[in-house]
Design goal:
- The chain is built from eight helices and no strands.
- The protein is rod-shaped, with a radius of gyration of 26 Å.
- 28% of the residues are buried.
- The protein is mostly helical and 253 residues long.
């Protein structure tokens, strides 16, 4: 289980905000119990630079994974559409049965996306999707002996692509920020909070700097988690290609 999946994204943001505020307060109190920390400015710059580097690294990985998930939606819509067209090479009643199941398959895939936030329902949609894949393969297998080699090759290739891209989408959905990177990012943010709160020269907290620091880092963390956790986040890959295919297949009985 990944740490970013333990809590809803909004609750994760609140937890990060509370931890950042606590780290600032710890730094402020520590500065008046143990004054005279040398080179505090240089240390602050070093830690903040490390946090910035980790955030940039994490965002780069999250953006790449988000782009991959979006591209796979397009690929799946194209692969299903190709199989639907190549099903016209098949004899009846296999042709009609395969196209009927493909239309239902698109519906199930979109329902699975809509139910991604509910683990039980998402699991049911995956099982239903796998069952339809088995049915499609059985249909093709049943007419394989009577098909010309060229038709069999084209149809089998299209079906394999549909099966493969579904696994690719599932793997991409489960490929999120590693626990090690997230823990290191939290440690860096909390450490920078302690250093920012360290004010031995003054006895008043820096409210403006604290607010900017907490709000910016919380917003960045919230956006990162939302973008990188497709099953529970809000920044999900657009399913428009599949919805457009659903409309097209619905009007091409």
């Amino acid at each position: 289980m990944r740490l970013v999946e333990l809590l809803p994204t909004w609750m994760m943001a609140l937890v990060v905000m509370a931890l950042l505020l606590a780290s600032l307060e710890v730094g402020f109190r520590l500065s008046h119990r143990k004054e005279g920390l040398d080179e505090i400015t240089a240390l602050q710059s070093s830690v903040l630079g490390m946090v910035a580097l980790l955030l940039a690294f994490s965002f780069s990985m999250a953006a790449d994974r988000y782009t991959l998930r979006r591209d796979l939606v397009v690929k799946e819509a194209n692969d299903i559409g190709t199989l639907y067209l190549r099903a016209s090479f098949l004899p009846e009643p296999t042709r009609t049965e395969m196209r009927t199941r493909l239309r239902h398959y698109v519906d199930v895939r979109l329902e699975g996306y809509a139910d991604a936030g509910n683990p039980e329902r998402f699991k049911q949609r995956l099982a239903e999707s796998d069952a339809i894949q088995d049915q499609l393969w059985s249909l093709l297998e049943g007419v394989a002996p009577q098909l010309p080699t060229a038709v069999m090759t084209l149809t089998t290739e299209a079906l394999n692509n549909v099966l493969d891209v579904s696994e690719e989408r599932l793997a991409a959905a489960r490929n999120i920020i590693p626990n090690t990177v997230f823990i290191l990012l939290l440690i860096g943010m909390l450490g920078s909070g302690v250093l920012l709160g360290y004010r031995p020269e003054g006895h008043v907290r820096g409210p403006l700097a604290w607010i900017i620091f907490v709000v910016v880092l919380t917003a960045v963390t919230f956006t990162l988690v939302n973008m990188d956790v497709p099953l529970s986040g809000h920044l999900r890959a657009d399913q428009a290609p599949l919805r457009n295919l659903q409309i097209q297949l619905g009007s091409s009985h």
